[in-house]
Amino acid sequence: MPAPVQLPQLSWGDPDAHNTALLVHGLGSSGALMWRMGDALANAGWHAVAIDLRGHGDAPRTLDYSVGAYAADLAAASPVRGGAWDAVIGHSLGGAASTVAAASDPRWTRRLVLIDPAILVDGRDASIVRRSQERAFADNRIEVVQEEHPHWHPQDLELKIDAVLRASRWAVEQTSAQNQPWDVRADAARLAVPTHIIGADPEVYSLFTGPTADAVLASNEKISMSIVAGAGHSPHRDKPDETIRRLLEALS
């Protein structure tokens, strides 16, 4: 794996809690935007830690924005008390990087929860991701974000604007450019820990659906999946209550 960088952290809950989870955001986002899950986990008795990925938020900037580089940073992160994470929860790019990290070292986490993970991004999906990021950087006013996501919580709107302001536009562009192909299906097939995928609704928009989802589920009996009806690519912001219910079920 590439040389890791140290990732800044936010946390919710008691650091001495029995269970500790790592929350990993998606492309163009930030650790702070995982607040809804962090808060829910803390209320369920967990200690939840969210990180800023390289090139995002307050994390170091680098030249390498391959999924492998993101994964190396995650693999180097561990709970304060040491040992394995009890769960790692990754969205989109964070789900892909978490998949690679867990496949590379089965001792890194005891469980994975992947939220509409970017396991394979090519063709139409690659274009959609690229255009979405271009729009976010081109016009980051709150009324624009609110018009696109009218049902998001006010804090999600505020934090999405902050995440775009603090992310490196070059890093986000390079993440698409440097991952061709963007494909971690082989890593998903090698996962040795229980893994649950919380999928977005294909009728709205989902990265992990169709033949890709079918192939990944068939490749590894440790992987299961549920879908949040009515949710787009960010179920934890589109349908937070249902997403958190499924998250807590997956961790029980």
Helix content: 40-55%
| Oligomeric state of shown chains | single chain
Largest sheet: 7 strands, mixed
Output mean pLDDT.
96
Order of helices and strands: EEHEHEHEEHHHHEHEHEHH
> Spans with pLDDT under 50 lasting ≥5 residues?
none
Number of extended strands: 9
Shape: globular
The DSSP helix count reads 11
Structural class: alpha/beta
The share of residues in extended strands comes to 15-25%
Summary keywords:
single chain; about 250 residues; alpha/beta; 11 helices; globular
Task: Give an overview in words.
α1 crosses α11 (240-251) and α4 (123-138) packs antiparallel against α7. This protein has helices at 35-43, 67-75, 93-104, 123-138, 142-148, 154-166, 169-178, 185-189, 210-219, 235-238, 240-251, and strands at residues 9-12, 19-24, 46-51, 87-91, 112-115, 120-121, 182-183, 195-199, 223-227. α1 links the parallel β2 and β3 (46-51). It is an alpha/beta fold. The protein has a 7-stranded mixed sheet with strand order 1-3-2-4-5-8-9, sandwiched between helices. A two-stranded antiparallel ribbon has the order 6-7.
Question: Summed up, what is this model?
Answer:
This protein is of the alpha/beta class.
